[in-house]
Amino acid sequence: MIRAGIIGATGYAGNELVRLIMGHPETELAFLASKTYEGEHYASIYRNFTEIVELDCVYGELPELVKKADVIFTATPQGFLAGCLNAGLLKECIFIDLSADYRLKDPAVYEKWYGISHKSPELLPEAVYGLTEINRDKIKKTRLVANPGCYTTCSILTAYPLVKDKLIDPSTLIINAMSGVSGAGRGAKTANLFCEVNENAKAYGVTTHRHTPEIEEQLGIAFGGEVRVNFTPHLIPINRGILVTATADLTEGAGEKEIREAYEKYYGEEFFIRLPEPGTCPESRYVEGSNFTDISFKTDERTNRVVLMGTLDNLVKGAAGQAVQNMNLVFGLDERTGLTGLPMVP
Amino acid sequence: MIRAGIIGATGYAGNELVRLIMGHPETELAFLASKTYEGEHYASIYRNFTEIVELDCVYGELPELVKKADVIFTATPQGFLAGCLNAGLLKECIFIDLSADYRLKDPAVYEKWYGISHKSPELLPEAVYGLTEINRDKIKKTRLVANPGCYTTCSILTAYPLVKDKLIDPSTLIINAMSGVSGAGRGAKTANLFCEVNENAKAYGVTTHRHTPEIEEQLGIAFGGEVRVNFTPHLIPINRGILVTATADLTEGAGEKEIREAYEKYYGEEFFIRLPEPGTCPESRYVEGSNFTDISFKTDERTNRVVLMGTLDNLVKGAAGQAVQNMNLVFGLDERTGLTGLPMVP
Amino acid sequence: MIRAGIIGATGYAGNELVRLIMGHPETELAFLASKTYEGEHYASIYRNFTEIVELDCVYGELPELVKKADVIFTATPQGFLAGCLNAGLLKECIFIDLSADYRLKDPAVYEKWYGISHKSPELLPEAVYGLTEINRDKIKKTRLVANPGCYTTCSILTAYPLVKDKLIDPSTLIINAMSGVSGAGRGAKTANLFCEVNENAKAYGVTTHRHTPEIEEQLGIAFGGEVRVNFTPHLIPINRGILVTATADLTEGAGEKEIREAYEKYYGEEFFIRLPEPGTCPESRYVEGSNFTDISFKTDERTNRVVLMGTLDNLVKGAAGQAVQNMNLVFGLDERTGLTGLPMVP
Amino acid sequence: MIRAGIIGATGYAGNELVRLIMGHPETELAFLASKTYEGEHYASIYRNFTEIVELDCVYGELPELVKKADVIFTATPQGFLAGCLNAGLLKECIFIDLSADYRLKDPAVYEKWYGISHKSPELLPEAVYGLTEINRDKIKKTRLVANPGCYTTCSILTAYPLVKDKLIDPSTLIINAMSGVSGAGRGAKTANLFCEVNENAKAYGVTTHRHTPEIEEQLGIAFGGEVRVNFTPHLIPINRGILVTATADLTEGAGEKEIREAYEKYYGEEFFIRLPEPGTCPESRYVEGSNFTDISFKTDERTNRVVLMGTLDNLVKGAAGQAVQNMNLVFGLDERTGLTGLPMVP
C-alpha cells in the first residue's frame, strides 16, 4: 500500500483527497496534517467521515513527515511548500503540490502575480506541470508534481487542441469562467458567507486573476509562441464546478469538421475527457463528484468565431482527483485507479 | 454477474440505480425501461453517463422483461407493479419495488391512502418490507422486496430502538421532516420549478402524507400495538437529503443513558447507521451521496421529552441504495457491496 | 421628519432598517453607527445603496448619539444596550432594541439563557415587549421597545389565539422551525460559509435555543399560567424566511371551526397578519421582503391534534420591519407607514 | 388614475408588473388576463398577493380589453400581440409589449431568429424600442413601446457609451451573460425543474440566442454601422438577475480615463444607471428587486482590451420595471414614479 500524507487536510481540497484516498485500493492515509486543527479528530471536523476516518490532525515539520509517507499531497497556501521543500526531502518522498508554488517555470512571473518571492527556485526544473493528459510521460518520471489550478485545468484542456493545431488565433482568445464557491476555500471570510454568495453572480479578479499566467504559459508551449488572454472568472452560487466559455477567431480553413477532428485526435482515447454529442452544451452537474472534463464547441459562421465550452469539478479534476491521477502515474498504476466514481445527478 | 433491469429508469431514483449498479462489481445493467423515453439513448437524457452507459431506453411487457434479468428494480408510479406482477413472473425474477405497492400489509389501508385499489393483494404475504437493518433475515429469503419510502426509512430508523424498547410513549410521537426536491420526482410540474422552490420553505401533505401509514405500521410492529403519529413533511431547496426531527415524551426511567444504550444495542454493529458523538446534530450533507443514516438525539429535562434527529440521502438509503443493499442480501452478497462510496462534502 | 439612528448598522438587520427607513416618508437617517466599520462609506459595504445612502459609518458613545436622533434602533449583540442605557438617556431618545436585552422580564431567566448578567434590570419594567399585534397599546406609550426575536414573533403569533382561547393544551405544544441563514448574522464564521450551508439541513440549539424562554413567557401570559415548550430550530439554505410548524393536542370541543374563528377574532383585522385559504400551507417566499406573517392550520381527527403553520421574513417582521412598525406606533403614525412594500416572488 | 391591464399576467413578468402597479401611486389594475388560469383568483396563483389583489383572471379578445384600460402590458409569447394588434386598437389604448414582436425593425430579421412570420409589420414604424435611457424622447410620444429583452437591456446599456463614442472596436465585442432562472418563464418544463438547475451552470443558445439581433441592431445604430457580436448566455441557479461580462479591443487613444468619461457623459445623470466605484465589480444581488442597472469596467494594458460588466434584475429593469418606466414617460409622469423600491440584500 502507498502511504499518503496530506498537509492542509482540513481545506476542501484536503477533504476531497481524503475521500478519494479512502476509496483507493492501493493507498492508505499516513497522516492528516493541519496547523489550525492540530490534535482534533479529523472526523469531528468533516463529519462525512464519522466512523470512517479514525485519524486525528497532526502538525509536524516536513523532515519528520516525509518519513511517514511515500507521497505527500500539499493543499496549502501559496509559498508554504516552496518555503520548506529541498532536494534532500524530495529524495525521501514524492510531492504532489496543489498550490501554485511550482507551476510557473519563471520565478519572476510567480513573484509578479503572487506577490511573494520564490524560496526554492532551484527545484523548478524538476517540477512537472501536472496536467495529466498533456504531460503524462513527464509526470511518470518526476518526484515533484505541480498540480494545476482548477480554472487552469479547465481552460487549458478546453482550448489546447485548437491552439496546438492552430485552428484558432490565440491572440483573440477570450476566456470567461464561473466557479463554485468551494474554489474559494474554507476560510472564514465574510465574502464567502452563504448570504453574500447565494442569489448572486459577480466577476472578480478581473484582469488580475492568478491563474492567468498559468494558462498563458501552457497554451504558449502548445502554440509555440507567446499567448496572452483575457481571463475573467466569476463566482456563482454552487458548491462545486467550473464552467469555461471561451471565444476565439477561427484561422483560415478551420471549421466545425477540423475542430471536431482535433478534439478527437487529442482526447478521443482519454478516459477522463469526454466529448459530448455535437450541439450539446456541457453542464457542470454532469461531471460533479467525478474526475471527468466535458468539452464541446459551437462554430459561428456569422462572426467566423468558435465558442468553446468545458466543465469539470473543481475539487476533483480541478484539484484532488487530478492529484490522485498523477500519483497513480508516478507509482506506475493505471491512472484511473480510485477515480472511477461516477458523477452524481442531481 | 447479476443481470439487473430497471423499469422507470429515467426518474431520479432510476438514474441513481444506474449509478450504483455501474459501480457494483457483481452486477451489470440488463435493460433500462422507460415508456416516455423509449428508443432514446439513456446517456442523452442523463449526460452524467456520457461515454459510460451505452444502453438505449426500451419499453416492454413484464413477461418479456423477466427473461432478460435476474433482478428487476421498479422505480415506477404507485399501482404499476401491483397491476402487472403475478406469482408466475415472481418465479422467474427477483423484484425490488421502489413504489409503495407492497409496503402495506393491509390492502384496505393502501387503498385509503393511495386512492387506488390493489390489483395483486395475493402477493402481499410474500412481500418483505425492505428496511434492511430491521428485516434483514426475511429479506434474504424473499423474491419480492417492498423497498421503503425515503421519509419512512429515516423516520422509522430514527425512532425504532426507542419505540421497541419502550423508552418513549409512541402516542406522543411527533415527526417533522424536510426533504430535498429530488424526492418529488422528475415530472414537469410547475410546483417543482427552480423559481417555485428556491428561496422557499413549506410544509405539504399535512396530516395526509402517504408515508404516514407506513411509519405507523412498522413502528406498531416494533411497539407491539397500534401507533398513530403526526407526520409533517416539508420541502426545502436542496437536491438531496431527508432530515427528520421527532419529539416524544420519555417513559418512566428513560433518560439519556438508556437511550444511548438502546441505539448502541440495535445499531452499534450496523455499517450503514452511524451514531455521531453526543451533542452533535446530524446534517444532511454529511450523508449525501452515500447509503449512511446518521442518528442522534437530545433529552430535555425541562419537558421530560427527547428530540430525535436522523438524516439520510433520499435517493440512496431512501431509495436506490437500500434497494441495492436488499439485492445484495437476496443474492447472498455482503450487503455493503457496491455501496461503499463515501459522502461528498461540500 | 423623525431622525432615526442605527447602532449596529452593518449587520443584516441594520441593513434592512436602512432599506426601510430610506423608503419611509416620515423618517430620515440620522447616523449609522458601527464599531467595526467606523469611517467607511456605508454604501461601500452595502453596495445596494450605491448613490442612495451618502452616510459614512460612525462610532460614538450613547450620550453623544442620543442628541442626534429622535429614535435609536440597536441591532447589537446581547448585552450591549443593557450595558450603556440608563433612565437619563431614555428621556432624551426613544429606543427600539432588536437585541434580547429587554425582552425577558426576569433578569435571572435572561442570565440563565444568555449567560451574561443584566446590567440595567431597573429599566425592565419600562420596556414593552414589541410584538405589535399583541401589545399595541402598551407600545404606543413606551420609550423602550424590546423588539422580539424572529423565531419568537413567528412562533407566538402562530400559536397565540389558540393558547389564549384554550383550544390547545399548551403542555403538548411542540414547535419546530426553520430559518434562513441571514438570521445567523453577518459575522465571518466557518459554519455560515456558503459551502457549509448550501445543500444542507440541520437542527441546532436543540433544547437550548435562546428564543425558548421568550416564547414561553409570552405564551404563558396569554394562557394565564406557565407554558413549557420544545422549540427546535433548523437552518436551511435560504437567505430569508422563518417557517414554523407547531403541533398540539386539541382541547375538548376544539375543532376546525373553533380554530378558524379564533384566528379571525384576533387577526381578522390585522393588516400584517394574513390568513390564507383553508387547506393552503404558508410558504416563506410569499412573505419575502414584506412585513406580513401568513398563518394557517390543519386539524387531524386521527390524532386529535392540530398542526399550525406560520411564516414571516426574519429580517422584516422578524426584525427591522416590526421595529419600524413599533416606531410608527410610538410616534403616533399609521403603523403601516413605510411598510407597504409587497412580497417579491420569485 | 391610469387603468393598467396585463395580458399574460400569470408569468413571472406579469406577476412583477402586478407588484409594481400595486405600489404605483398613479395607476390601478384594470384586469389580469390569462388564458390558462381564466376564472381563477389571481392571489390563489400568486399567494404573495393574499388579501392584497382581489381580481380574478379573465380572458378576452383585444377589442374588448382595450375598452377597459388606458395602457395594456403584454407579457405574452412571441407572435401573440403582432397577431392581434392593429392601428385601430392602437388608437384606443397604449401598448407596452414585453415580447419581441416590435423590437426588430426588419420583419425578415424577426422571422429568421424567431421562426415565425410577422403578422403586423405595418405597425413596426410606429413602435419605439423602449430602452428608456437611450430612446427617452421617442418613448414619450409613442403609443406602442417595444420593451427590450432582459439580456438585451443589460448588454446594450453596458456597451453603449463605448460603442457610441468609438472607444472600442465593436467587431471585437464578445458578450457573455448569465441569467437567473425566472428569465426562462413559469412553464412546466423539465429543464427548469429545481433539480435540473440547482448546483449547475451551463451555456445555452450558443450563437443562436434571439436577443443577439436586438443587441446588434441597437449597438449598430449607436455605432453608425453594422455590428456583429458573439453573445453567449448562461443559466445559473439564482431566481433573478442578469450579469453581463463583455470584452472588446480598445481603439487608439482609448483608456481608463476616456471610458470613465464616456460613462459619466451618458449615464452621470441617469437615476436608474449607477456607476459603482472604480475597481468594484457589479454584483447582481445589489440590484435585486430594483430598477437599477450597475455598470463598471476594467481596462487591461496587457491585452489592450477592456472588460465591461453590467447587472440588472431581469424581472425589473429587464422587464416589468422598464415597462413601468416607459409607461411613466408616455403618460407624462416622472419616470421614477412607483420604481423607487430599493434593492433587497441579502
**Biggest sheet details of chain A:** 7 strands, parallel
What value does the average pLDDT of chain A take?
Answer: 97
General form of chain A: globular
Number of domains of chain A: 2
Total strands of chain A: the figure is: 14
Question: What is the CATH T-level topology of the largest domain in chain A?
Answer: Dihydrodipicolinate Reductase, domain 2
Helical proportion of chain A, percent range: 25-40%
- SSE ordering of chain A: EHEHEHEHHEHEHEHEHEHEEHEEEH
Q: At the first level of CATH, what is the class of the largest domain in chain A? A: Alpha Beta
- What name goes with the CATH superfamily of the largest domain in chain A? Dihydrodipicolinate Reductase, domain 2
Largest Cβ-defined interface = A-D, 45 and 45 residues
Distance between the termini of chain A: 34 Å
Strand order of the largest sheet of chain A: 3-2-1-4-5-7-6
Secondary structure category of chain A: alpha/beta
Percentage of residues in strands of chain A: 15-25%
Number of helix segments of chain A? Answer: 12
Unreliable segments of 5+ consecutive residues of chain A: none
Radius of gyration of chain A equals 20 Å
**Quaternary structure:** homotetramer
